[in-house]
Amino acid sequence: MWPSIVKTVKLFIDLRTQWLRAGMDGQRVGMNYEVLFRVMDRMGLDDAAWIEMWDDIRTLEDEALATMREASDG
C-alpha cells in the first residue's frame, strides 16, 4: 500500500459499520457521509488534504460497492 493512502484506508476500515442500506434485501448503497465528514473534520486536515482524502474515500467506496454487487450476483 502506498504510504500516502494509509490514513485513508485506515479511516475507510474504521467506518466499516457506516454503510447505508436500501431495498428489501438491504443492499449497501453507499457510506454514511455525515459520519465520515465528522471524522475527517476532527482529523485537522487542511483543505487540500481533506479534498484528496474525500476523493480517495469515494474511489474506495465505488470499488467496495462494485465488489459487493459482484459477490451478491455470483
Keywords:
single chain; 74 residues; alpha+beta; two-stranded antiparallel sheet
Q: Going across the biggest sheet, name each strand in turn.
A: 1-2
Relative strand content: 5-15%
State the order of secondary-structure elements, H for helix, E for strand. Answer: HEEHH
Q: How is the biggest beta sheet arranged?
A: 2 strands, antiparallel
Structural overview:
- There is one protein chain.
- The chain has one domain (3-69).
- The protein has a two-stranded antiparallel sheet with strand order 1-2.
- With 74 residues, it is of the alpha+beta class.
- 62% of the residues lie in helices and 12% in strands.
- The mean pLDDT is 94.
- The chain has helices at residues 6-14, 33-42, 47-73; strands at 19-22, 27-31.
- It has 3 helices and 2 strands, in the order αββαα.
Give the helices and strands, then pairings.
Blueprint: H1 6-14, E1 19-22, E2 27-31, H2 33-42, H3 47-73
Antiparallel strand pairs: 1-2
Quick rundown:
By secondary structure, the protein is of the alpha+beta class. Helices cover 62% and strands 12% of the residues.
